[in-house]
Automatic annotation (TrEMBL):
Name by which UniProt lists this protein: C-type lectin domain-containing protein
Organism classification: Eukaryota, Metazoa, Spiralia, Lophotrochozoa, Mollusca
Domain C-type lectin stretches: 31-94
Source organism of the structure: Plakobranchus ocellatus
Length: 96
């Protein structure tokens, strides 16, 4: 997540349960979140504090780690998708 380090920002930490949407209203995205499995394939954690990511509401057929290169997570149409970390995109940051 080099972009986050460069911007010195804190990405959002999703705290959701099975019965709630990821965000209030519709989130069409895609927007990067603070979730990754970089260095721990298949075990997702919050980038900022290394705490385990809770319930993950994946898009259909995700997470698939396409070509072994998708280690970051974005939100797209209220579902999560694993994506390549280095690509450009919008981010959701926590409010100070």
């Amino acid at each position: 997540m080099p972009v986050v380090k460069k911007l010195a920002r804190t990405l959002c930490k999703l705290t959701i349960s099975r019965n709630t949407d990821l965000l209030q209203g519709s989130c069409f995205g895609p927007y990067f979140t603070g979730i990754t499995d970089e260095g721990s394939e298949g075990r997702y954690y919050n980038f900022n504090d290394k705490s385990p990511a809770k319930y993950l509401k994946w898009r259909w057929f995700q997470s698939d780690n396409w070509w072994g290169k998708e280690h970051c997570v974005d939100i797209w149409v209220n579902n999560l998708n694993d994506v390549k970390c280095g690509r450009k995109g919008r981010h959701i940051c926590e409010a100070a």
